[in-house]
Each structure stands twice: as structure tokens, then as C-alpha cells.
Protein: Carboxymuconolactone decarboxylase family protein
Amino acid sequence: MSKDRYQKGLENLKKMNPESYQNLEEVLNGIAPDMARYIAEFPYGDIYSRPGLDLKTRELVTVASLTTLGSATAELKTHVHGALNVGCTPQEIVEVIIQMAVYAGFPAAINGLMAAKEVLEERGEEFEK
Structure:
């Protein structure tokens, strides 16, 4: 069962952001190599593989959640990449982050927008103003 969970997780990660997972795996290898496997198995193998929501919707929800945390900039950037990789538009991502100002406050939303802006600029993504 565990191998199946891991394989499903890797399949989802490959669609969303394979470089990010490889980087995480390398960083964690020296301190907690099992953590990378746990990440592949649980969130991406078990949760992201569930029926009911497509990867695009799951990534938008994740961008919203990470924005509200206000302290997970690296993870937010990774998921902005992932959202773009599974079909989200820059406009959808920005709108989700703006909406989080209502629930998490303007500072969290502004920080989220700055993180998204960095990713969009890095990728050369156009944003309709």
C-alpha cells in the first residue's frame, strides 16, 4: 500500500512541480530523508489523489490556505508554480489571494501577492490588469 501511495504522490508531483519535490528531497536527505517520502505519500498520494476536486481546484485552495498562513512564502511560491502547471491562470491566482484579504488581513494578502508576483515574473507570465 505504501508504495502505491508514494507512486500516486510522485505522479501528482510530476504534474504539479517535479523540480520542487526533487529540491525538497535533496535538502531533507541530510537531516530527515523520511520527511520527503511522507510528503509524497500523504498530501500528494492520499489527499491530492482523492476524487471530487481536480488538481487545478486543489492548487487554488492550497494557494488560498498558504496565503492565510502568512508565514509560508516558500511553500506558497511552490504552489503558485504548481497552480500554473495544472492550468490556473495568473488572474485566478491573484484573485484568490486578493480574496484572502477578507479572511487573513491585508498584510497576508499583500505578502501573498508579492510571492505570486515573483513567480509570475520568473516564469514570464502575463497578467491582465
In short: The two ends are 47 Å apart (CA to CA). The chain is about 80% helix and 0% strand. Residues 1-50 form one domain.
